[in-house]
Amino acid sequence: MFDLIIRNANLPDGREAVDICIRDGKIAVTGSKIEATAATEIDATGRLVTPPFVDPHFHMDATLSLGLPRMNNSGTLLEGIALWGELRPILTREAVVERALRYCDLAVSQGLLAIRSHVDTSDPGLVTVEGLLEVRAKVASYIDLQLVAFPQDGYYRSAGAVETLNRALDMGVDIVGGIPHFERTMSEGAASVEALCRIAAERGLPVDMHCDETDDPMSRHIETLAAQTMRFGLQGRVAGSHLTSMHSMDNYYVSKLIPLIAEAEINVIPNPLINIMLQGRHDTYPKRRGMTRVRELMEAGLNVAFGHDCVMDPWYSMGSADMLEVGHMAIHVAQMAGIDDKRKIFDALTVNSAEAMGLQGYGLAKGCHADLVILQARDPLEALRLKAHRLAVIRRGKIIARSAPRITDLMLEGRPAKVDSAEYAPLRTATS
């Protein structure tokens, strides 16, 4: 007797018609046509069942604040920074908590059950830190929320940032952040990387830095981050987020840089939606793509994970907590349209991001947490194409969100009565 059985599931690795048996919040058995009973059974009817989506790079302190105190009319990074500077002094803990909890509701509906959020520590009052620590406690039963101490105005550039970052870590923030390319000089940026890696090593914490989020090919703080990662023995515990300067660097330098990043075992976190929106703003034509070298980094064996970054805030007026939308954009920007490419993109939204966050018990193997999403698609490729509808979201073996399939009634003489867009892809067989 099990608590829950999902039958006839397709899995991301290509297995089909799999039954998943769940007991005590964990996956107990998987296999074909398992003879067992459960308190609850769900027939997936050949649809994709996947571990939950994971967002390893987000800004929950600013989410859903679009229009406060005004709109970002230019849509640029710099106006977004200016807007946040206007909003931050009037933020209240209650408002931060209310918006963040609403976002977490949206995330659950999208099957997004793990989020790493950067938290601005530039405000001496640390209102955002207090707010998101409260949110982390409130959502702990249904979302794994990690917090990064992020000196958004610069670790050295902003007065008091050194002290407030340490105070945020003392309050219980999980991860050391930074933004070296926003310091006044390249040398101060490099010094901030060293100082922040030293703090992480001394405290036994991971590192996640906004790094080289610029079109400047001479912004090379990822090189310093890799070197300091190895100096302080932080291999595997460091993430470099954005790395957009790599799209402007010459190939020879990159041929040396990527092996250095790989040696340091740095997790790479591009943010396709935001990167393509904000970068290349000084270009006319030809216009650079705003994302790092995803294909080359993957081919070098690096763990590449995708973040959403922003949803309806001063920097980005779009977004819906849908990681499939992130992957959909990545396919286009990275020009990764092959079958194997798309599977790698899907992994970057799930297993790679879980690895970047260091999540334990994640996956579909026996003994893993029974955290699952049933999608209205038959495989990862179709899920990405359709940005597939979430039919059920399961946390620790309990259904926490559910919706009916998205079906359209069609009133056309001589044509089918209903249309399910998930049934339109040609079947892939060995002969076709």
UniProtKB/TrEMBL annotation:
The keyword Hydrolase applies. GO terms for molecular function: cytosine deaminase activity; isoguanine deaminase activity; metal ion binding. CDD domains: Bact_CD (cd01293). Gene3D superfamilies: Metal-dependent hydrolases, Urease, subunit C, domain 1. The keyword Metal-binding applies. Keywords: Hydrolase, Metal-binding. It holds the Pfam family Amidohydro_3. GO terms for biological process: cytosine catabolic process. It comes from the Bacteria. Residues 41-400 form the Amidohydrolase domain. This is Cytosine deaminase. It comes from Phyllobacterium bourgognense. The lineage of its organism: Bacteria, Pseudomonadati, Pseudomonadota, Alphaproteobacteria, Hyphomicrobiales.
